[in-house]
Amino acid sequence: MALLPFAWVRGLASLLYPLRMLVAHGWLRESDIDAGLKLLHPALRLNRVFAQVTQRQWVADDMLELTLQANGNWYGAQPGQHLQLYLERDGVRLSRSYSLTAVQPKGRVQIAVKHQAAGRVSPYLLEHLEVGDVLELGPVYGELSWPEAQQGVLLLAAGSGITPLLGMLRAALAQGFSAPITLLHYVREQGQRGFVAELQALQAQHSNLQVRWSLTAAGAEPGALTGRFAGEHLTEVTQLDQRRVLACGPAGFVAQVQQWWQAASLPGALQVEAFTTPVLRADVSLREVRLGFTRSHQQATANNQLSLLEQAEAHGLQPVHGCRQGICASCTCTLLSGTVRDLRSGALFSEPGQPIRLCVSAPHSDVEIDL
Ligand code: FES
Asked: What is the complex's ipTM, to 2 decimals?
């Protein structure tokens, strides 16, 4: 039980400055101080960012929006970025990144969590996390950005790809963005359309916003769009050639958008972000390789198919990581010898000293890495 109310936790951050100085000079250990602080409140820490859950709200049949209030160590973020989240289950530290659907002043943020049957973090957040619980927050990352000029915007989302785009859309409309915006969201079924009531209300309130959904697996109402992304779905989008296009979703969806974009030869800008881990290329036959983790003094038998991150974890190592999709760079490690293959492009890299991202690199030969 907390000895202090959470309302005090943010205010205490600045008062902890003398303790930070003592830690910086090596006179105290941060872990010892944190052990005492968390007795006062589970979200109180010297430097680490913890947040309390203040609201849970279902925004689709399979998607929950969580409102989090961070402690005073929160570093800020931009709408559209992703936030790394940590929790401990049965003594194991788990981590997963979620898109920020809102970034508000004083450390109040919202994230959306989609049900993933195979995941360990998302099912826990959906089924067991309660208002008042505390989570640790990690770094934020993500490059999607809203245009600074009043230029038309086309938002293309598939599945949970709606979440970073919604974060940017909410912020832009709140700041008075008045150029035309079209949001097209692809989902399998009607009940997976996220934030419907809010988007319809925004559409009624802002004449420059048009929202459409396309159902990819079930019948739609007359006049509604159906099927996967296709250029024909954009016939109603005015001034398409002047729009900034932002697309987010699974890798296959993003690849379709990129192909359409190249074929259409549009002069504007395209920004994309893929959510899913790259699909293994079928043209590389399975081989056994040796992995050397130099700093850990470990050698292991591995294969040339799975990522170095997965294979290091399978051998008991715990490399630092974030998105597991090649985006955040937190798993970057130095290649010491051998050849690795980029799982996204198939490109080979063999220069010793080269930084590689473990989550999207597979060994192509025997490999030594600085891990
Ligand atoms: S974990 Fe994010 S780039 Fe590898």
From this structure: 0.99
